[in-house]
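Dear support,

I submitted the protein below through the web form. The confirmation email said the job was done, but the results page showed an empty box. After a refresh the structure appeared. I'm attaching both so you can tell me whether what I see now is the final result or a partial one.
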Amino acid sequence: MGAVCSTDRRPIVHVLVVGGAGYIGSHVARRLIDGGYSVTVYDNLVHGLHANLHSEAAFVHGDIHDQVALRAALRATPHPEGTPVDAVIHLAAAKAAGESMINPELYANNNLSGTVSLLNAMTFAGVKYIVFSSSAAVYGEPRYTPMDEKHPTEPVNFYGFTKLMIEKLLAWYGQLRGIRSASLRYFNAAGYDAAGRIGGLEQQPANLIPLIMEAAVGMRPEIQIFGDDYETDDGTCIRDYIHVTDLAEAHALALDWIAANDDSLVVNLGTGHGISVLEMVEKARAVTGQPIPSRVVERRPGDPATVIASSDLAAEILGWRAEHSGAENLLKTTWDMYARLDR
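What the results page shows now:
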């Protein structure tokens, strides 16, 4: 059920999931409903899908910049139970690192201005809790791995910069307006609900595993491997992949924690180990039974050889573990979704 706070604060019952019709947001919304929360999804459906909406969640078609719609959703919720919103989960950010370097205006407007709009609406409505989907991109080039929360934050792309600035905004709104926040830093969300309860595929994916699956079903002719001359065992980059079910669990645990402790936190979410691009492609061929053509191309600028996040602090504070994030499960649950396509 919802988090129970100390006696001077009412328990969290109703959560507004901003971006809740998207890939990660739909899994988070489902986890919250499974846990007994009332949920309203707030989404402009630019990247979110009606197919991802849970039948028990109320839905508001609105934009994060629309103060009138946000305030209405927070204060006069359309949820059938009629309870006011107690907390927000924020997943409404543009997320492609490469695109952020080409179109920084989009990322400044959506990620930075959009978050200010959301925080202002929360302040107006008196909502004091927010869980933010941050990114390990705030760290930039790894100085050591696994990277923990003490690693310097020196983003190498504008996307990572916006995530770091949002974390700083949350800290200031915490100091000045009493808003308690959890910022969850992670890389490479992958996989799908194992029971097949999510209706739509991720829109415009940029991460390795969905691109592999697009090659497996013929949506693209091949998978490109950006460089095979890195200082790793097989020469390809190593990354840390987190199953979206584990991410959804972390969002719920973080929400419980900030409400119960009336405090804020910043934690990494990772497995503590990585897998190379070539290994992932080879495992995908075994899982799917498809040839999955691949071709090595030039390195992408700014791609570090190895990026792995430590989640020891999340384990200590939240009791969180990446229980579903093995490579085979990541690939199988994703393949189960793509194999439905009639192509």
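Response: this is the final, complete result; the empty box was a page-load delay. The longest helix spans residues 104-125.
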